[in-house]
Specification:
2 copies of one chain form a homodimer.
Chain A lengths: L8 H8 L3 H8 L7 H13 L6 H8 L4 E6 L5 H16 L3 E6 L4 H13 L4 E4 L9 H8 L3 E5 L9 E5 L1 H14 L5 E4 L6 H16 L9 E2 L5 H12 L7 E4 L3 H14 L8 E3 L16 E3 L2 H17 L9 E4 L2 E3 L12
Parallel strand pairs in A: 1-2, 1-3, 3-4, 4-5, 5-11, 6-7, 6-8, 8-9
Antiparallel strand pairs in A: 10-12
The structure holds a DNA duplex (30 and 30 nucleotides).
DNA sequence: TTAATAAAAGCAATCGATTGCTTTTATTAA
DNA sequence: TTAATAAAAGCAATCGATTGCTTTTATTAA
């Protein structure tokens, strides 16, 4: 059973007393084969259970119908959704996806890039790891003549195609909403600032506060409160302050927001009356917590589709050098109970 | 920039006035190259930014360090977790994953199988689609000399390596738990019976009832209540019966269980006092609903690792024909508030 | 019926890396 | 210093499909 020989075009050619080139042409449905021999070849191919060897074909043709994807974690909802969206489109076009996860490790990200270069993929789609250091590996992708599309977490200094969410806008809208609901002291839970998405969310937070004439208070901005646990820790600290915040924007994730909610419950702080909570990502669970959590939808599956379409429609089809382009997807604030309180007169 | 030539071993050989075979041997670190020339070659390779062409290498060597994966949906938590587990192990071994989603369509599953055969992957890991029809495409994988591992949703009649959960046991434990909590009329929400996992869960349900001397009532077994919406519809119907159930086991998914919970809330049925609810899969949200939902953990990430290890340790290493083996993973009943009521004396 | 043209099929090189075998070079033994 | 041996390097075929070019066969025009 093992290592048995597969049927090749030579087997078919031999059986029919033809040349392999005719078999190849018949199978690829190109010209210069008579109707009769084509039929014969196709029938024989089926009979011998012939399957093309894509390795050989791709090697000869000099391109590979494969796209590489590198994400921090495959089983994080946002990335799983993006990948599902990507697959949906690439499948239609007959392309395969090779998927790697960096596990938030820069070293592993670099290794994955190298593997994908070796595989001669025609495009690499990447969202960088949390401990992203420098972009030399990304530059190497371009140097090897492979298309590069960055998404979500992108390296700012590198001019490539990018598909991102307008994190600053979303953040600004979320904070503005909190202000409109009458919250006065709004805390921010932040992610690592070496990732541009978190910088942008902070920028949006600051912009909204300033826009409404609020003071920006460093003591209300907690770095690295990414997970549920860290969100909980940060909340405990914030709510124990002499002058505690009356709203917390967990700009890192909904998981962080969930940590906030649980601590509030435990400390007997009523949400949304005494504390407003806003998360980020529109995870499925935000709809079913008590109260449900206000959050930001990133249209992740659509983002995947957008990325794939960008490749097929704008990058691949062009022979001339294409000008890198940034697609900015408008995220949407989903207002739920955790921030909806009747506005009290001032 | 486009279609530029990459550095090959011939470029290196030419530059150093050597033969390509020496370059190849130096790069693969095999014998018959002097220390001096090896160093020279490695230095030059780095200098010219040489990257191996895996297509050519794999074609020549006759095997491909790639594993194909086909799942119904990439962004369904269970499958995303399994894939993450797979990737974790295959990455360590220098293997790549090509990932396809069937979108629960049999036709697409067949197509994906063919693509992966063409890619000459060394193994295909599959969980079949909901409208699985027959296993000829799977037999074809074997006929082409490619290893096949089925997981979770498997084709029973085909003897291959399989990694599954003991669905019957899990189901029996869940129903037994409900009975122990004093529930008397336990309804079952079922999935399509052409998938063996759902058949097994039904079997476990029936077995538990019979074990405890309960009657099996067909009117309490609702087919095709897979999603949250269908779970809600089924619940509405069940709770409107003259003699409604006092517990619902949503054996299809936690989403279905969530549908049950929401309808119960709306109809003013108190959970767990008047209605016990048990789901399946241990989705993240089951922990944070009110009340939290009793469910079954499938150890999905571990399952992925188990599958990958099976390939590397038992299948790949053996040269003799290996005997297919079924690995049965013990799922775990996670008891939460939705089924915990104080047992009332009969 | 012959010549001109078009269609069909074959030839051979190619994509890039690998590897069994042979030849050349370097090292050790006689 | 020469012969025997070992190490290093080169030669050439190979993996399977593709494709520009040439040759053969079939078709149409003269």
């Amino acid at each position: 059973m093992k290592n048995q020989k597969r049927t090749t075009i030579y087997d078919i050619a031999k059986k029919l007393n033809l040349n392999a080139s005719s078999v190849s042409r018949a199978l690829s449905n190109s010209s210069n084969v008579s109707e009769a021999t084509r039929d014969l070849i196709l029938r024989t191919a089926k009979e011998l259970n012939y399957k093309q060897n894509s390795l050989a074909s791709n090697l000869r043709k000099g391109h590979n119908q494969t796209i590489g994807v590198i994400v921090p974690r495959i089983n994080q909802n946002f990335f799983a959704d993006v990948i599902a969206g990507l697959e949906e489109v690439t499948y239609q076009k007959g392309y395969n996806l090779i998927i790697c996860q960096s596990n938030e490790s820069y070293a592993r990200e670099v290794e994955s890039v190298n593997t994908l270069i070796n595989q001669h993929v025609s495009c690499i789609i990447i969202s960088v790891s949390a401990d992203f250091e420098d972009d030399s590996h990304l530059r190497n992708i371009i140097a090897q003549g492979i298309q590069l599309i960055q998404f979500d977490r992108v390296a700012d200094n590198l001019a490539t195609f990018k598909v991102v969410n307008d994190n600053e806008l979303a953040s600004r809208e979320a904070v503005s909403h909190l202000i409109e609901q009458g919250y006065k002291r709004i805390a921010l839970l932040e992610g690592p600032q070496n990732l541009n998405i978190f910088k942008q969310r902070r920028d949006g937070y600051v912009a909204a506060l300033e826009e409404h004439g609020f003071e920006v208070l460093p003591e209300l901005m907690i770095e690295n409160a990414w997970t549920k646990e860290l969100g909980a820790v940060a909340t405990r600290k914030l709510l124990s302050m002499a002058n505690p915040p009356d709203a917390i924007f967990a700009s890192t994730s909904d998981f962080s927001a969930l940590g906030v909610l649980e601590v509030a419950h435990k400390m007997g702080v009523v949400v949304p009356d005494e504390l407003g909570i806003c998360g980020y990502s529109n995870e499925a669970f935000t709809e079913i917590t008590t109260p449900s959590i206000t959050t930001i939808d990133q249209y992740s599956v659509d983002m995947g589709k957008t990325i794939a379409n960008l490749f097929f429609q704008e990058i691949k089809s062009e022979d001339k050098d294409v000008v890198p382009k940034i697609v900015n997807i408008q995220p949407k604030l989903i207002i739920r109970s955790s921030t909806l309180r009747n506005k009290k007169p001032l």
